[in-house]
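Priority: medium. Attachment 1 of 2:
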């Protein structure tokens, strides 16, 4: 993976920790695109920069890292979230996992543990995003096919069309009205109260 292309936001309430992380990451070729001292600023920085990775300290003022992680994950404003913490209790780990966190590192951090964790977490997050995208596309195609089949059936029963002529009718309307076949089928079903 090309590290120079990985854009990072660092969120930690300790300025020295942020500075150390920024130096370490920059020396490894990562691009630090933002820094934050609390959870609210981390969320806003992610909204502005849409980073590949956000490193969040668990304990921060105003809004803790786990709460910020949940919002960042729900709003989909960073590709990968890794928690940084001095706490390794199972409760924190479980909560982090449930908030969409891809990695969990216990401080103090060294280059030997940070860089491999970042690389693995970012790679896994990209794979998961692609899988989710593929699933959405397949689901959308299946839903479209189901709607079109229902509309064809309605045209066949109400208009006496053959299956092919019903399909051709939907396709022709789709082309002439510059709408998807699914949208045309939805309109046919709504018009006839068949949806």
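Attachment 2 of 2:
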């Amino acid at each position: 993976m090309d590290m120079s292309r990985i854009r990072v936001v660092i969120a930690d309430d300790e300025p020295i920790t942020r500075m150390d992380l920024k130096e370490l990451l920059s020396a490894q070729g990562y691009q630090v695109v933002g820094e934050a001292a609390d959870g609210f600023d981390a969320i806003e920085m992610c909204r502005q920069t849409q980073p590949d990775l956000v490193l969040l300290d668990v304990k921060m003022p105003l809004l803790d890292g786990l709460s910020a992680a949940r919002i960042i994950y729900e709003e989909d404003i960073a590709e990968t979230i890794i928690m940084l913490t001095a706490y390794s209790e199972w409760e924190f780990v479980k909560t982090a996992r449930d908030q969409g966190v891809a990695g969990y590192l216990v401080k103090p951090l060294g280059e030997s543990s940070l860089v491999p964790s970042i690389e693995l977490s970012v790679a896994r997050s990209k794979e998961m995003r692609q899988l989710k995208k593929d699933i959405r596309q397949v689901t959308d195609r299946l839903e479209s096919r189901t709607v079109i089949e229902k509309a064809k059936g309605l045209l066949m029963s109400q208009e006496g069309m053959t299956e092919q002529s019903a399909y051709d009718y939907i396709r022709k309307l789709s082309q002439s009205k510059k709408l998807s076949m699914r949208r045309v089928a939805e309109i046919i079903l709504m018009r006839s109260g068949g949806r």
